[in-house]
Write a structure and sequence with these properties.
alpha/beta, Rossmann fold, eight-stranded mixed β-sheet, 11 helices
Length: 432
Amino acid sequence: MADAATPGKGIAYIHWGNSWQLRSFQDFRHYIDALIYIHDLPKVDLSPYAAVVMPDAMDTAAALPHAPQLNAYLKDGGFLVVCLQGHADWLDIPGLEWTPGNCRDWLWWTKGEKLEVRLSEPHHPITESLPLSHMSWHWGGSYNVPEGARSILEIDGGSGSLFLDFPSLPGGGRLLLATLDPHSHNGQRFMPATTRFLRSFYPWLNRELGIERPAGNRFTYLQCSHVPSEWHPDGLEDSLGGAGFETSFAPLHQLDPELLGKTDTLYIPSSHDEFFLKSQAENLIRFLSQGGNLIIAAEPCQPWLPFMAPFHAVPPRPFTNIKVRIRDDRFGIFSDLGEGFDGWKGVFGQYVRGWTDPPPGAIWLTDIGSEHDPKPADWIWQYPTPTGRGGYVFMHNGDNMTRYPDHGPKKEALLANIAVALRKLSTGELLF
């Protein structure tokens, strides 16, 4: 089923149901407007889309029945991106020929050798965004360069092109055609160059089409307690502003769809009204399903969202049980905070005193409890949706994070670091 897109401005992504394709879409969904199952193509009008992407890892037979529709989109002025390894003979491009072949040594990257590819001369403008290192892994054959085409990447010695641009087809259409397979390997979390390719390519495609997308910089602090340090924490606006966020403050009982529609990341501090928040569960879930992010500080007694679980305290003796340890900092949240980030005026246990069970698929970030039986103090999770567009939840099972750290090299940086990580996950700068 296709998602809605702005007519004339959207980018569509055709998939075959392959997990690698879907994971790559999920990674770079910020730059894509519609996810279209290839067998649904007869029911979809492609004409509103400024570009249509057909990623690699497609079953070769799946595209054939839809060749007339895809060629018609090109002839009517559409912009088609195809990453199929020699199985695109259904494209109506006169003189286009594919030759099978691949790199001389599949393990070239383990030996410090250069891959036998080079940028075509003169360099295509896309290479200002995608350098050679972003296009170097292997390929699935090569194409000739027919009349009207421009080569972007070629095999040394001029024996074929791996990436072609047809900038001005009859009818005003445009085709980008590659024998590279970035979506499949990025989706497999294998070959970092493929991730670099997609991180460069999708922003380039949006710029090429004149599409501007908000960066997700709207941060809202939900004011839940009238204690001054909780109502408007000192330093919060400065730390978030330094990270590029526009910070707003809103009283708890103003939480509604209108407020949620004006923010990208909502922070809920630890002292809050569980009954009221439960009354807003439907709105909060809708916010997550549409890509909004939640940062929650809580020790739930009556869990107020369906994925939340009751809080459990760890035994406070020995005191080392309540010393927080970093388990997984793949998102760079804690790396610059100093070893004592969890201290508040020298008191262990204020940052976190226990844990909640995370939902399936969550990433466990920090430990609390004994060394032989650690529990998840902080975890992060993506809200699941059929299209992979769900936002992220950072669950902190403890005190208000605006208090940390009170010492160390970066005061008041914890919450800003979390917000930056969620923003990067939402735009594909980090992968979940």
